Amino acid sequence: MPRTRSLAWSELKLGVLVIVALTIAAATIFAVMGSRGFVWQRYSLKTRFSNVAGLKTGSPVRVAGMEIGSVTDVVFAGDQVDVVMELNKEVRSRVTTASTAVLAPRMRIATLPPVAAIPDA
Known about the structure:
Oligomer: single chain
Strand content: 25-35%
Structural class: alpha+beta
Number of strands: 6
CATH topology of the largest domain: Elongation Factor Tu (Ef-tu), domain 3
């Protein structure tokens, strides 16, 4: 009998340890992701600038002062620079073909009244 009882206690300790480890891992993942959301809650856009003035990967993207995404890539495209950004799908209806991206002093998207929504990819 004592052997069965000690085996159950060791299994319980292992189970508690696994639950604590998973909780810490989940909290770390959510802390690192911040406000970006999950992959299925974002979509990518690309814009082109003649000068990005020090814009870096990871810089926030804002609409009306609210952070709605981040810059994921900055690459040369001939004599200009392509900037790829990931935005939250919640603002998809606000960012249309009539919207413009502005670097002043941070990346932001100036939105106009909806003209035509950008179709899902």
